[in-house]
Amino acid sequence: MPHSHALGPTRAAPHRPAPTAGPLARVVTLTGRCVRLSARNLDALLMSLALPVLLMLVFVYLFGGAITTGDPATSYVTYVVPGVLVLCSGYGAALTASTLNGDLRSGVVDRFRSMDVGGTALVGGHVLASLARNAAATAAVLLVALLLGFRPRASLGAALAAAVVLLCYVLALSWLAAVVGALVSTPEAAGAFGFVALFLPYPSSAFVPVETMPGWLHGFAGHQPVTSVIESLRALLLGAPAGASPWIALAWCAVLLALSVPLASLALARRHR
Amino acid sequence: MSEEAAIEVAGLLKSYGDTEVLRGIDLRVPAGGVHALLGPNGAGKTTTVRVLSTLSGPDGGVVRVAGHDVRRERAAVRRRISVTGQYAALDEQQTGRENLWTFGRLRGLGRRAARERAAELLGSFDLREAADRAVATYSGGMRRRLDIAAALTGGRPRVLFLDEPTTGLDPRSRRTTWGTVSELARQGVTVFLTTQYLEEADHLAGRVTLLDRGRIVAEGTPAELKRRVAARRLELTAVSPTAHQELRRRLDVAPLHDDPHGLRLSVATDGTAAAVRGLLDRLDPTADLLARFDVLDASLDDVFLALTGRATRPAGTRPKETGHAA
Ligand SMILES: Nc1ncnc2c1ncn2[C@@H]1O[C@H](COP(=O)(O)OP(=O)(O)O)[C@@H](O)[C@H]1O
Ligand SMILES: [Mg+2]
């Protein structure tokens, strides 16, 4: 039985309208919540951390012997690290579709809405949590890669630039995933976006040079967003001249974000007619 | 401020696709006290709560809650209300404390205030021991308590919406929830709750609105509503289907309720010995048709039945009060 004194606020006068949290406090709170929930979702967590390790082992030991990179100075493990980074980031970012969709199918979002917490803050929390998850996955990839003989030749500046490109890629893809999560009605449909994200790096220069692919695929594989991200990462990590590819990658991310941010908010508004 | 109604609804319409769920609702809930929206499954209770608490937009009509229009002044309404929906709105994988902390922060409390408020609510809702366990491990009653506590993280709201707060709870947890609701009302919170349980509305609410298929069929205090049907009900149980038919034939007034499968008939009565004896003598002079009779207080069930022609729950699940072997 509740004690009478404790049901009301300790200091507030009765019926004072509830204060409203600032936008920053909301996003920070929601991000913390999503990070806690992600950390407790053991399946997803194991998958996110096991995937990089397994992929590195598969590419380096199973495929690595058969693939030549066209540059004798570059070992295959060094060639493939950017691809694995992008693959894992894509997978991690795509999880945002499932985490957001799960929230939308539960009653929690109604409580958030009744507290006047808007859809953009909610998506922001999920996307920032995705960045945190991906930071952990990236660290795992790099650790395994270093153990397998990956030797980056990046200056500090280039390494930072590579981090920025990867961050923007994860940001854009997570927000795109949020659009999917807000649109679909089943967890399976939300999960399917992960499949797309996992598959997209293959027709690119991630794992084999584009020139080795059939001619009809060159146009797509050479110009799709993932390729510019991978080319930038590879050049920046290997200390090679990156040319325009980081800018192309960032432009892709900007375009994706410019579309996804309003689309995600619209999709949420439509869902809550 | 006390003159102002907590909830004012005029001509509220709401459809989902082709389904008209709310078909013109008018409602005025004065500030203070407990107001129950009573209706069977599918009547539109949840939809009403969702519209009143700004979670769904009305298709037509005017809805003002805590002095503000839900459509044009949504943010102002949201700062003055709290909702606990029909299904728990909690994170299963967060602990009770983390859930309350999260909601408190989103309500605008500082870190420290949110921590203190969470601890305070965990204490008053008897959840201190379970505070640091994941909600996934909670029982139904504990979950419900946390869900109601979560509606109070921002302090006492002007209007608190509770959608079927006791559905699925064991009797003890139900009593606890009733205590909480009464206590909140005593502290000046206007509580608008929905229920399918007539005894719950009777027990808790100062005023009751009966909702049926998206329309309001009656409104008043429980006593006023009971006055609209006979004070007592005589429930007769026949010895056999043939006897049931014979009793039905001999009855010169329409029964309140006729349940051939349960061999039962209900008739309005004032409950006096003379009236009951007279009726029994008339219906069964040879004393071989009736197995038993029960004199029951008219319940809101009866009001509902009288006003809609339909029972709110299957026949035969009514609680017995005074039974006599015939
Ligand atoms: N989102 C929705 N889409 C379509 N129909 C709905 C939706 N929500 C409720 N309904 C329909 O509206 C009617 C009333 O539902 P509801 O308000 O949940 O009733 P109650 O809470 O009284 O059981 C039901 O027939 C239900 O099927
Ligand atoms: Mg309902």
Automatic annotation (TrEMBL), chain A:
Swiss-Prot/TrEMBL keywords: Antibiotic resistance, Cell membrane, Membrane, Transmembrane, Transmembrane helix, Transport
One Pfam family of this chain: ABC2_membrane
Membrane-spanning intervals of the chain: 44-64, 76-100, 121-150, 156-184, 247-269
Predominant subcellular localization, coarse grouping: membrane
Keyword Transmembrane helix appears in the UniProt entry: yes
Top-level taxon in the UniProt lineage: Bacteria
Annotated region (Disordered), positions in chain: 1-20
Subcellular location: Cell membrane; Membrane
PROSITE patterns: ABC_TM2
Coiled coil: none
Topology with respect to the bilayer: Multi-pass membrane protein
Domain ABC transmembrane type-2: 43-271
Family annotation (InterPro entries): ABC2_TM, ABC2_TM_bact-type, ABC_2_transport, Nod_factor_ABC_transporter
Protein family (similarity comment): Belongs to the ABC-2 integral membrane protein family.
Protein name, as recorded: Transport permease protein
Source organism: Streptomyces durbertensis
Upper taxonomic lineage: Bacteria, Bacillati, Actinomycetota, Actinomycetes, Kitasatosporales
Automatic annotation (TrEMBL), chain B:
UniProt GO MF annotations: ATP binding
Membrane topology type: Peripheral membrane protein
Compartments (UniProt record): Cell membrane
Record's protein name: ATP-binding cassette domain-containing protein
Keyword Cytoplasm recorded: no
InterPro entries: AAA+_ATPase (IPR003593), ABC_transporter-like_ATP-bd (IPR003439), ABC_transporter-like_CS (IPR017871), ABC_transporter_ATP-binding (IPR050763), P-loop_NTPase (IPR027417)
Keyword ATP-binding (UniProt): yes
Superkingdom of the organism of origin: Bacteria
UniProt entry keywords in alphabetical sequence: Antibiotic resistance, ATP-binding, Nucleotide-binding, Transport
Main location: membrane
Domain ABC transporter intervals: 7-238
